Amino acid sequence: xxxxxxxxxxxxxxxxxxxxxxxxxxxxxxxxxxxxxxxxxxxxxxxxxxxxxxxxxxxxxxxxxxxxxxxxxxxxxxxxxxxxxxxxxxxxxxxxxxxxxxxxxxxxxxxxxxxxxxxxxxxxxxxxxxxxxxxxxxxxxxxxxxxxxxxxxxxxxxxxxxxxxxxxxxxxxxxxxxxxxxxxxxxxxxxxxxxxxxxxxxxxxxxxxxxxxxxxxxxxxxxxxxxxxxxxxxxxxxxxxxxxxxxxxxx
Length: 251
Hints:
The chain is an alpha+beta fold.
């Protein structure tokens, strides 16, 4: 492991040199220290210590011992400090992302085939999603992406599901409250999967393990899918077929 200077590394994260020096000095002490002791350990002028300690307290990096007859200070564990700083950075980055002007990307349409290409592009699209995902799937086609979809949900991505197969209960176990697109018995001739986020759309289709796919940001295709998902939202009152096709029985 490469040795680093914690004071310099903290400065890279926006701390002042004095804040970093005083925090590093405090965290090496097993006991709370007076301002005088902090100044001595950090080798800084005593007059400069108290304003910095006050800033560190407001930052959540230092606490003042309430049991002491005079002010004594103790460092908060760096694990807690780092988690708080990461949360603040994520919040700032999210605010920046939401307020940046939208950049129009050039139109693109990529085609590919095969199971590996499908998994690569679908997994990448799910992992990159930040706000919402529209997912339409034939029975069991999105099972390989269950973990990635759960991670997206955990980070706040809103997911909407359409079911193309009218799957028998309990379904594939991945879709949450899917809207049925077709209430009848699904034709066993093939399968279809759609994944759409803010920027990209993946359309995959095939039979068995044979698959063809398109990855695009072209607006006419995305608008058509917006209409499809909008219709799907209002189709939940369509009665679902009690029959289970051979296609729905496949693993």
